[in-house]
Amino acid sequence: MTNPRTITLSEREAQKKLKRLTRRGFLAGGIAAAAGIGGYKWLTSGGEIGGRTWQERAVLNANGAISEAYFSDSRLARTFRPDQIGFQKANGGYGLDDDDELKTWKLTFDPGIAGVSPLTLQLADVQSLPQQKMITNFCCIEGWNVITQWTGVRLADFLRKYLPTGHSLPPYVYMATPDEEYYVGLDRKSAVHPQTLLAWEMNNQPLTSEHGAPLRLVIPVKYGIKNIKRIGTIRLTDKRPADYWAENGYDWFSGL
Amino acid sequence: MEDSSQTLRLKHLLAIRWFHWVNFPLLSMMIWSGLLIYWAYSPYHIGSFHFFPDWFVNLLNLKFHLAQGMAIHFVFMWLFIANGILYVSYTLLSGEWRMLVPRSGKAFRDAFHVLLHDLHLRKEAPPQDKYNAAQQIAYTGIILMGVGSFLTGLAVYKPVQMGWLAALFGGYAGARLVHFMLTLGYVGFFAIHIQQVVLAGWNNFRSMVIGYEVVTQHD
Fold this sequence. Notes:
The complex is a heterodimer of chains A (256) and B (219). Chain A has 256 residues and is α+β, with helices and mostly antiparallel strands.
């Protein structure tokens, strides 16, 4: 059924036809508008998962799954010259309240394998791996970005060294501050990206407490929220780990 | 003796009307959620005018809704993009694009004459088909802007995985700025569009809802 291009009628008939079309058109528009408002109400009023309705969360997770599928660790974050380094402000102090922790700090590495007890490591154990320096863009989820230099070792190297032989990496990595006040979950591909570092220096200076001393994660393929400071625990796991900001309304994947 | 007759002409096809009206709330949602995101880091200004003044931020309740803004933006992006792709595909398949795209280099001169005519500085409007040259440039330009928003959006969303795309816009911060400027462009388009619709009158507006317009004598 196609509508005729032109309709010529007597003026009376034309006006009648016009009235009928108008009534029908605006009625359809009204119904469509009501349906749209209803759809929006439905989207924004479901049961909550991590501070989002389950519908919003389902879309964020689907977007994350697409992002993860597309992710390739051969795509590197752009690197910069030293003169392009900017000022890195200290944003987010969760899990950094007690500086006394620094005196007794150690790193617990739990490979998440039944019957294998977690390792307790010192900073020197981490620093024994091949050292990397890189100048990358740090992107905060708020929208700002700052070019920063980091010194550390690849998380991939760390995992290769400390994962018990004969075991392969499970799909997820969990990291938490010593007091577990702040914690992040990472997918395996992002975790073993060659620019994902366990870092102890920022802009050639040892990390200050507010920037995550003695050891923090630097992961340029994620928003700043995943770059956890003062790592106390690293745990490998088969289940998608809890993540502080994903429990507070944000996307779990948060990849760049 | 014949009764005086009247002709109704189908101006806007049903699908085009739906795409148009569906786009309106979708783009509005994208802009609103974009403002919620922008509030969290709002560095842009022209001279001493900062985007956005406090009264505007308070009026739209933009503060502290970053997570909500991101969720809404990343849900509605799918609908907004889908509607845009369907619209463009439809205009191509139906041949309607011939009416919408400026077809010759003359278009810019004609559009200028339309502008002069609208400003009452020129008596005759240049000859036109369904849309005049100024409309063709506006309606084609807005689609190109949509493509730009999609590309800059993708660059801001995935600046590492889409690093080449971000580089095209001068990097992450550059892409974010262009994304923002395009949004200002939509708001400007909207303001002129509404003004033109008001000036064109009821017969024209109604045709965007019901499809038909009453043919007036000088057609």
